[in-house]
């Protein structure tokens, strides 16, 4: 749910601003237009410019929302498709606006609009790339006298006093949770990484920090909390972490 909320926070202002611009308001926010001389600005078809820019913002807002929804539902094919649509829409719209305002008096406007659109596309691509790179990384887990600390996306700290048992299961998580797993508030990118809150008929509610097809899997059962499953891409790293966690638990 967190991913969807992030994209909704981005999408809603874009849609609202889009409707605002369609009414001819807020044009001073457009790169190029806000730096034009007053005499040049008077020659711009403000209604056409507002409608074009507004429609682009509304479409981008809708595409951001659908992009976040696809991530939340784990539909990787839709994530890729919507990312391509978002990028293509922004670039083609910039090209079309450049053609529409291609006269000499509008050249600065069209050039700066194209630059601004390109910058927005780059920011989107960087944001999405960072999201997936960070999400697909192995979890960073450390054990200390304070507890077991899991860093990064959906991270938390579990006091050792709340840990009932730590078990090493010689199976990948995809086999453990069964066929009807549901992501209630979690991450699942293009790879095997699963992080956050999930549930299934076989296990009930549980928290994942796993590479779904990697074996073995660490199970941390805790008092008054949902069980936690952890696994790394490399089985040796998972086994080493298991030994570290058990050793720290034994010391308490």
Task: Reconstruct the topology from this structure.
Elements: H1 2-22, H2 38-41, H3 46-73, H4 76-100, H5 107-136, E1 140-144, E2 147-151, E3 156-158, E4 163-169, H6 173-176, E5 182-188, E6 193-200, E7 204-211, E8 217-222, E9 228-230, H7 235-251
Helix pairs in contact: 1-3, 3-4, 4-5
Key traits:
9 strands; 7 helices; 3-stranded antiparallel β-sheet; 2 domains; 252 residues; alpha+beta; single chain; 6-stranded mixed β-sheet
Polypeptide structure, described:
The protein has 252 residues and is of the alpha+beta class. It is built from 7 helices and 9 strands, in the order αααααββββαβββββα. It has helices spanning 2-22, 38-41, 46-73, 76-100, 107-136, 173-176, 235-251, and strands at 140-144, 147-151, 156-158, 163-169, 182-188, 193-200, 204-211, 217-222, 228-230. The strands form 2 sheets. Strands 4-8-9-7-6-5 form a 6-stranded mixed beta sheet. Strands 1-2-3 form a 3-stranded antiparallel beta sheet, with helices on one face. It is elongated, with a radius of gyration of 25 Å.
């Amino acid at each position: 749910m967190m991913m969807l909320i992030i994209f909704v926070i981005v999408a809603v202002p874009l849609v609202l601003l889009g409707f605002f611009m369609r009414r001819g308001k807020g044009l001073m926010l457009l790169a190029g237009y806000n730096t034009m001389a007053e005499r040049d600005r008077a020659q711009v078809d403000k209604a056409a410019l507002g409608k074009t820019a507004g429609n682009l913002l509304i479409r981008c807002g809708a595409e951001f929302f659908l992009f976040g929804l696809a991530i939340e539902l784990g539909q990787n094919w839709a994530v890729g498709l919507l990312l391509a649509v978002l990028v293509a829409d922004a670039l083609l719209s910039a090209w079309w606006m450049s053609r529409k305002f291609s006269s000499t008096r509008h050249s600065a406007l069209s050039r700066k609009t194209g630059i601004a659109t390109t910058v927005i596309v780059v920011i989107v691509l960087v944001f999405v790339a960072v999201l997936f790179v960070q999400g697909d990384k192995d979890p960073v887990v450390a054990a200390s006298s304070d507890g077991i600390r899991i860093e990064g996306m959906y991270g938390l700290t579990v006091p050792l006093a709340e840990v009932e048992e730590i078990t090493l299961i010689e199976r990948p998580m995809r086999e453990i949770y069964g066929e009807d797993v549901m992501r209630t508030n979690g991450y699942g990118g293009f790879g095997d990484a699963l992080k956050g809150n999930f549930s299934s008929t076989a296990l009930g509610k549980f928290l994942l920090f796993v590479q779904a097809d990697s074996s073995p899997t660490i199970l941390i059962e805790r008092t008054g909390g949902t069980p936690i499953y952890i696994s790394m891409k490399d089985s040796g790293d998972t086994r080493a972490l298991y030994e570290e966690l058990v050793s720290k638990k034994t010391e308490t």
